[in-house]
């Protein structure tokens, strides 16, 4: 499991701990942000642009659209570098 700090600058500056767990047997990554009570499972084969849009929509239920967009971009970057 990896823990990343997401420093968001849009809106009020905020930092979230983002937990990333790679499940190599199922070809998925579990992403969780406990402070938001939010998590999602991402398949390895998911396309970057579609993944970013899906993350944005899901995160937008918890935070403002600008924060959701910024956090989604960071998550996509971290997941694709694994």
If you had to describe this structure to a student in words, what would you say it looks like?
The protein has 82 residues and is an alpha+beta fold. It has one domain. Helices cover 35% and strands 35% of the residues. Strands 1-2-3-4 form a 4-stranded antiparallel sheet, covered by helices on one side. A hairpin with a 5-residue loop joins strand 1 (2-8) and strand 2. Helix 1 (48-59) packs across helix 2. It is globular, with a radius of gyration of 12 Å. The N and C termini lie close together (11 Å). The relative contact order is 0.21. The model has no long low-confidence stretch (mean pLDDT 95).
Query: Low-confidence runs (pLDDT<50, min 5 residues)?
Result: none
Helix run count: 2
- The number of domains is 1
Main sheet summary: 4 strands, antiparallel
Share of β-strand residues: 35-45%
Strand order of the largest sheet: 1-2-3-4
Q: Could you spell the SSE succession in H and E letters?
A: EEEEHH
Structural class: alpha+beta
Shape: globular
Q: Please estimate the helix content.
A: 25-40%
Average pLDDT works out at 95
Distance between the termini: 11 Å
- The tally of beta strands, per DSSP, is 4
Rg (CA only): 12 Å
How would you describe this structure in keywords?
82 residues, four-stranded antiparallel sheet, Uncharacterised_YueH
What is the topological layout?
Layout: E1 2-8, E2 14-23, E3 28-33, E4 38-43, H1 48-59, H2 65-81
Antiparallel strand pairs: 1-2, 2-3, 3-4
Helix pairs in contact: 1-2
Describe what is shown at a glance.
This protein is of the alpha+beta class and 82 residues long. The protein is built from 2 helices and 4 strands. The model has no long low-confidence stretch (mean pLDDT 95).
């Amino acid at each position: 499991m990896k823990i990343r700090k997401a420093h968001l600058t849009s809106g009020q500056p905020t930092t979230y701990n983002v937990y990333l767990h790679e499940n190599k047997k199922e070809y998925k990554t579990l992403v969780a942000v406990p402070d938001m009570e939010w998590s999602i499972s991402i398949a390895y084969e998911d396309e970057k642009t579609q993944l970013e849009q899906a993350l944005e929509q899901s995160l937008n239920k918890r935070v403002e659209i600008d924060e959701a967009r910024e956090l989604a971009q960071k998550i996509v970057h971290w997941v694709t570098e694994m």
